[in-house]
Amino acid sequence: MLRKVCLIVGLVAVLSFGVVGAASADTISGRGWLKAVGYGVAKLDMTGDVKITGHGAGVITIQGAKTVRVEGKGVRSEQADGTVVLRGVKGRVFIRGKDMTVKMAGGKIDFIARGSGSVFLEGRGAYHTRHYRGVWAEEGVELPMIE
Fold first, then answer.
1. Per the count of CB atoms within 10 A, which of 26, 33, 111, 117 is most buried?
2. Where are any strands of DSSP class E within 1-147?
3. What's this model's pTM, rounded to 2 decimal places?
C-alpha cells in the first residue's frame, strides 16, 4: 500500500513539473532553434536563419531580411518597402536577417528557424525545440526558440 502511495505521489510530482515547463514556454522569447510543420499561420519575429520547405500552396511574406534565396518554383514579388512576397513556392526558401519578420499562411507550413526571437503558430500542426514538443493551437501559441 505504501508503495502505491509513493508511486502516485511521485507521478503527480513529475507531471506537475511538465505542466509548469510547458506553460512558461508559451509566452517567452529565446535563442536556439524551432522546427514546425502544420496548416494555418506561422509568424516569426527573429534574428537568424529560416529554411522553409514549400509544398506549392500558400503565401510567405518576408520583411527586413538581408537575403532571400528560393530553390524551386513559385511567384516572387517585391514591394516598394522591400517586403518580399512568395506565392505557391514548391521547393526550398532560405532566409537570413536581423530583426526580420517572416509570415507563412495557407497550405502546408514546414520550416526550421535558428537564431533568437519568437514564433507564433496558429492552426493545426506540431513543433519541437531542443527541450519542448507540442502542438499548434487554433487560438495560437507563442513559442521561444530555445537552445
1. 111
2. 30-55, 59-78, 84-128, 133-135, 141-144
3. 0.77
